[in-house]
C-alpha cells in the first residue's frame, strides 16, 4: 500500500501519542477506532475523516484543528496563526481545562475586537468540531488571567480581586 499525501499527520499523531504515554491500542480504544486503522493512519496509509480526527484529538487532549490542518482539511495558511495559538494553549500541561477554556475565550474576544473572525476554521466541519472553538466569549468578571482564579472561586495561585 502506497503512502498517501497527508502531510506529516501520521508522524505528528505518533509523537503526540508517545508524549501522552499511550500505546497504539490504548489510543485506539480511547478514540473509538480500531487498532489497525489507527496504525495505518500513523503510517500514512489512510486519510481519516474529520470525525475520526476529532475523536483522536479528544483522546489525546489536543486541538482537533491542528489535526485538520495536518490532514489537509483546513487551509493551513489562512488559519495557521489561530490554529497554532489555540493548539499551544490546549497543549499546555500546566493549565487545567477550565483555565484553557477561559484563556481561549479571552484570546477569541481580542480577535473579535480587532476585526478577525473567531472559529472560522471550524465552521464547516460540523457540530462536533465546534466544541473545540467556544462561541461564548463572555469571561466571568472575577476571572484573573495571571493566577488561576475563576468564577468557581478555585485558585492555585495568588488570590486577587478583579476590579
Keywords:
single chain; 163 residues; mainly alpha; 434 Repressor (Amino-terminal Domain); 8 helices; 50% helix; globular; disordered N terminus; disordered C terminus; DNA-binding transcription factor activity; DNA binding
In short:
This protein has 163 residues and is mainly alpha-helical.
Please tell me about this protein's structure.
Residues 13-67 form the HTH cro/C1-type domain. Pfam families: HTH_3. Keywords: DNA-binding. Residues 121-163 are annotated as: Disordered. It comes from Streptomyces griseochromogenes. The protein has 163 residues and is mostly helical. It has two domains: 9-62, Orthogonal Bundle (434 Repressor (Amino-terminal Domain)); 81-155, no CATH class. 50% of the residues lie in helices and 0% in strands. It is built from eight helices and no strands. It has helices at 9-19, 24-31, 35-42, 50-60, 64-70, 76-91, 97-113, 127-130. α5 packs antiparallel against α6 (76-91). The chain is globular. The N and C termini lie far apart (62 Å). 28% of the residues are buried. The model is unreliable at 1-5 and 118-163 (pLDDT under 50).
Amino acid at each position: 500500500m502506497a503512502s498517501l499525501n497527508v502531510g506529516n499527520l501520521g508522524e505528528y499523531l505518533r509523537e503526540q501519542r508517545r508524549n501522552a504515554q499511550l500505546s497504539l491500542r490504548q489510543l485506539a480504544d480511547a478514540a473509538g477506532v480500531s487498532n489497525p486503522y489507527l496504525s495505518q493512519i500513523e503510517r500514512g496509509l489512510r486519510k481519516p475523516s474529520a470525525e475520526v480526527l476529532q475523536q483522536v484529538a479528544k483522546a489525546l487532549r489536543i486541538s482537533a484543528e491542528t489535526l485538520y490542518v495536518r490532514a489537509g482539511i483546513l487551509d493551513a495558511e489562512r488559519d495557521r496563526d489561530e490554529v497554532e495559538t489555540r493548539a499551544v494553549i490546549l497543549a499546555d500541561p500546566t493549565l487545567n481545562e477550565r483555565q484553557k477554556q477561559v484563556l481561549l475565550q479571552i484570546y477569541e474576544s481580542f480577535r473579535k475586537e480587532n476585526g478577525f473572525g473567531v472559529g472560522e476554521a471550524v465552521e464547516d466541519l460540523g457540530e462536533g468540531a465546534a466544541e473545540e472553538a467556544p462561541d461564548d466569549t463572555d469571561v466571568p468578571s472575577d476571572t484573573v488571567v495571571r493566577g488561576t482564579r475563576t468564577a468557581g472561586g478555585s485558585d492555585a495561585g495568588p488570590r486577587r480581586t478583579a476590579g
